[in-house]
Write a structure and sequence with these properties.
By secondary structure, this protein is α+β, with helices and mostly antiparallel strands. It has two domains: 69 residues, no CATH class; 97 residues, 2-Layer Sandwich (hypothetical protein PF0899 fold). Helix content is 71%, strand content 10%. It has a four-stranded mixed beta sheet with strand order 2-1-3-4. Strand 3 and strand 4 form a beta hairpin. Helix 3 packs antiparallel against helix 7. The chain is rod-shaped.
Length: 220
C-alpha cells in the first residue's frame, strides 16, 4: 500500500515537472494556451496566472495608447498637408479668375475703342460734343486755344458759334490742328488750366479705374 502511494506521488511529481518544462518552451504570444496551461497545474499557480493576465492587459493598453498617439500625429500631419493643398488650389483659382477677368476687360475696352473710332469717322457729332463738354469745365475763362485733329479742324470751325456757347464767359477761341490729337477728341488750353478731352485719355482712365476697383475687391 505504501509503495502504491509513493508511486502515485512520484508520478504526479514527474507530470508536474513535465508540464512546467513544456510551458517554458511555449510561445508567450499564445496567451490563451499559456493561461490554460498554468491553470492546469493547480490552485498554487492561480496568482501567477492572474499576474500574467494583468501584464498582458497592461501591455495591450500601452500598445493601444502608443498606436493612438502615432495615429493622431499622422492624422494631424495629413490634415495640415490637405489644408495647404486646398489653400494652394484656392489661390490658383483666384489667380486664374483674376487673369480671366482682366482679359475680358481688356477685350471689352479694345472693342469699345474700335466702336468709338468707327463712330467718330461716321459722325461729326462726337468731336463737337467733346469740345462743348471740355469748355463747360472752364468757368470764367475768356480766351482758349483749342487743339484738335487736322480732320476735325474744319468741323469745329463750321460750328464755332455752337461750341463756344457752351461757355458763358468765352470771348475768343483759337482753333489749332494737331495730328497728335486722336480724332473725336481735343485739348483745351487756357490761363486757368487745361482740359484733356481726348477719347484715348478717357478710355485709359476708365481702364485704370476698372483695374483698380478689381484689385481692391481681390485684396478684400
Amino acid at each position: 500500500m505504501s509503495n502504491v502511494i509513493k508511486l502515485q506521488r512520484t508520478v504526479r511529481g514527474v507530470q508536474i515537472d513535465h508540464r512546467i518544462h513544456g510551458l517554458r518552451r511555449m510561445d508567450l504570444s499564445g496567451n490563451a494556451m499559456v493561461g490554460e496551461g498554468l491553470r492546469q497545474l493547480g490552485h498554487d499557480y492561480i496568482p501567477l496566472v492572474d499576474e500574467y493576465q494583468r501584464g498582458v492587459e497592461a501591455g495591450k493598453a500601452e500598445a493601444t495608447k502608443e498606436l493612438q498617439l502615432s495615429y493622431d500625429g499622422q492624422l494631424a500631419e495629413e490634415r495640415k498637408r490637405v489644408g495647404m493643398l486646398m489653400a494652394n488650389i484656392r489661390n490658383q483659382i483666384m489667380l486664374v479668375q483674376t487673369r480671366w477677368e482682366q482679359s475680358v476687360m481688356q477685350f471689352s475696352l479694345a472693342i469699345a475703342r474700335l466702336v468709338i473710332k468707327q463712330e467718330v469717322a461716321a459722325s461729326n457729332e462726337v468731336v463737337r460734343g467733346q469740345v462743348r463738354e471740355a469748355l463747360r469745365h472752364l468757368v470764367g475763362v475768356e480766351k482758349v486755344k483749342l487743339r484738335v485733329h487736322p480732320e476735325d479742324e474744319n468741323i469745329i470751325r463750321h460750328c464755332r458759334a455752337d461750341v463756344s456757347s457752351a461757355s458763358d464767359s468765352l470771348k475768343e477761341m483759337v482753333i489749332e490742328a494737331d495730328d497728335k490729337i486722336d480724332r473725336g477728341g481735343c485739348i483745351v488750353e487756357s490761363d486757368s488750366g487745361n482740359v484733356d478731352a481726348r477719347l484715348s485719355t478717357q478710355l485709359d482712365r476708365i481702364e485704370s479705374l476698372l483695374f483698380e476697383q478689381r484689385g481692391a475687391e481681390t485684396q478684400s
